[in-house]
Amino acid sequence: MSSDSRSYKAQVLAELLSRKLTRPLVASLVSCVHCGMCHTACHYALADPEDPRMTPSYKGDQLRKIFKRNHDWTGRVVPWWVGAKAPITDEDLEALKEIAFGTCTNCRRCTFNCPMGVDTASINRTMRGLLTAVGVMPEGVRVVSKDQWEIGNQMGVLKEDYLETLEWLSEELVAEVGDPAAAIPIDKQGARVVYAINPREVKYDPRTITNAALIFYAAGEDWTMASDWWDQTNFGLFSGDDQLGGTAGRRLFERVAELGAEKLVISECGHGFRSTRCEAQNWAGVDVPFVMESAVVTMINYIKEGRIKVDRSKNAIPVTYHDSCNLARSCGITEEPRELLRLVVSDFREMTPNRQENFCCTGGGGAMSMSEYTPRRLKSAVIKAKQIADTGAKIVATSCHNCVDGLSDLIKYYKLGCQVKQLVDLTAEGLVLEECAVRRTPRRVVPMPEPLPEVGPAPARALPLAGRTVLVVDDEEDARTFIATVLEDAGARIVYACDGDEAISVAKRERPDLITLDLSMPGKDGVEAFTELRHDPEIASTPVCIVTGHPEFRKVIYDRPVPPPEGYMDKPVEGEALVKNVRRILETAHAAA
Amino acid sequence: MPQHEPSALLHTVEIVHWIALGIMGVVYSIRVWWLLRFRATRDRQAPGNPERTNARKGALYSLANVAMPWAMESTRSKPFFYATFVLFHLGVVAGISLAFLSSLAPAVVASQAYAALSGALLAVAFVVAVGRIVRRLTTPYLRLISSPDDYFSVIMLTFWFALAVLAQLYLAGVIQGEGFLVAFLIATSFFLIYVPFSKISHYLYYPFTRYWLGRTLGHRGSMPTVRA
């Protein structure tokens, strides 16, 4: 096979593989004997025995074939003999995407059942990372990754929305307990504990934040939440993008260090805990000066230390526990949740199998963000549904937000008639506040907070970008014309530049509201121009949206020692998405100002 | 034991199969060097569960996994398959031992006790190997993941076990025909040279794969595994 016959993406993928190879990965790639023992370990394979493609070793073979073709002696000389094969076309890459993202949740159950110790989950994650690096990924993964890169959390929660949510949760909690000391502290310098959460909590499950805040308050903890870089989840784990993983982790670590905390407590999230506690330091290549702890451990310690008191009889409904794959198999957290549950519920029932042998909730590995694979996911969920039904429990407790979503979905689909709760909810519900540390000191009575005044709807604009000036920087005329036309149609006034030097001079002259910036340009390229823009006090605060055909430059841009761009879009860009992004950036910039 | 002196042909194939062993050793050394050329990983994070386990315990547990059928659901729930795995590999050990002891200690391999044990292991391994061929041919997911090397390796081993049984019988004086031993040693030589380039070299990688997996998971606190 000539490398020339391969598509550009296929060539890049093969080159990137060379950089990703580590000793453990190579050992896993060369050790599989195709014995098939992994078949019965996988929920996809068990739920769909007629489809041989669900066998984990088949999924691992996708990367193994590429590895053999490029790195193994026999595979290079007689590829057909050992099944070595490298992708050639973009269609081949699409087929790999279907397997890597659509038939595996990287739950690692097969790894624990492989006689050879082949870590197929890590192989699959590497495959995902390679595909992501060349822009071949499900749309959901693209969107979530983009939000994590640009906004700083994987659900695209804007800072003002996050702070507003914390504010009303804080007000509710203060009103509920009648003590202003219960307010949620934000950016409290020198607090002992920083609590980092999953953006899903802000968006869909804010009660878990209040419950955690109540527990911290009850324990008399000196704690805080950060106003930014507060997301403990990390889509880099799911997309296989170590650069995103490292960047997201580093942001959180730096924030905790800036706040001077002794401990980072990670809210209940399997992949968040694994990413933050076990992986991000390795991805980012940094060591951290503080302790990292799961909120489950924190709650157990509070109970053991007598800082909070819980009445088990308040949680009398039968409860079972679902082990998150990431917590049990990748982080060794199996006994702590059980210890806590036995302290806070009166009827705990084990699920079978459990701990490291538990089956995936089917929502792991980012599956919940890949709607195109939902039918297959729900089909595979029959294994989990049976496990739950066999317990007879009415509440499935879990320490993972992905699991909450995955389990809720399958419970509804298979009509199991039970609900999913997190341990923080059960602990808070069983709390006897009067006997907790905080109530051992005299309590101040505070008036109920004033209700917020009603705010009428903002007047609608005829065109979303009316009155805005946008500088479009691109050396390709077609691209420039397309972007300009789309934005003009949305009401913006457009000014142009064809290279970095011109961009800076036009920006100074026209003072646009936003700049769309191409990276690869002759002369002064976009990376240099961006850095210069940010260093020029006259135009440093102008929002920049990178629009590039080189997604791999993302790290280059985000690693600059200057404030990151406000947006980053991959070409080809769709008109609607472009307007939406530009509008969001302008609104965010306006709110920040 | 055969009553006649080894023929020139037998003497030659004995030399050849020692040379083949040398080639295998050289190729395997290069293989290990090749594997260790790849980037080592480092776990920066603090130990996950130091009260219960650590990297060393995890690595030892992982390495011993092969002898602990209860440790994994996949082997625990398939005791027959595990038993065949053990017998198959004991057969390989018996075959290799036979190949080298036939020239190093012919009196030992000709003894009744040795011949009975070795012959039984090789015969059972042959049956297991035939079963493995059938399994690979008839199980859809195994067919899907099998390469020509997978088929050839198990067929070659089956053939080799059969020759080994015959060679053992010849060496024990049960049957006549030096040709059985010659054929077995030629097959062994081919086996020794082919193995480093095939899936059969998995046993070379086993300690590395298991060690690195166990070390990482032990450091994180999830190996040894915990069962209810």
Which runs of chain B of at least 5 residues are low in confidence (pLDDT < 50)? none
Number of helical regions of chain B: 10
The radius of gyration over CA of chain B amounts to: 21 Å
- Largest sheet descriptor of chain A: 5 strands, parallel
Written description of the protein model:
The complex is a heterodimer of chains A (593) and B (228). Chain A is 48% helix and 9% strand. Chain A starts with 7 loop residues before the first helix and ends with a helix. The model of chain A is unreliable at 443-449 and 451-461 (pLDDT under 50). Chain A has helices spanning 8-20, 23-31, 43-47, 56-71, 73-77, 79-82, 90-102, 120-133, 139-150, 159-177, 199-203, 207-218, 236-239, 242-259, 270-284, 295-304, 325-331, 335-344, 374-380, 382-391, 401-413, 423-429, 477-489, 500-510, 526-535, 554-558, 575-592, and strands at 193-196, 223-224, 263-266, 291-294, 319-322, 348-349, 395-398, 419-422, 469-473, 493-497, 514-517, 544-548, 567-570. Chain A has four domains: 3-137, Orthogonal Bundle (Fumarate Reductase Iron-sulfur Protein, Chain B, domain 2), CATH 1.10.1060; 150-307, no CATH class; 312-429, Rossmann fold; 469-592, Rossmann fold (3-Layer(aba) Sandwich). The relative contact order of chain B is 0.19. Chain B contains ten helices and no strands. With 228 residues, chain B is an all-alpha fold. Chain B has a domain at 75-201. Chains A and B meet through helix 2, helix 4, helix 6, helix 15 and helix 17 of A and helix 3, helix 7, helix 8 and helix 10 of B.
What is the structure about, briefly put?
The complex is a heterodimer of chains A (593) and B (228). With 593 residues, chain A is an alpha/beta fold.
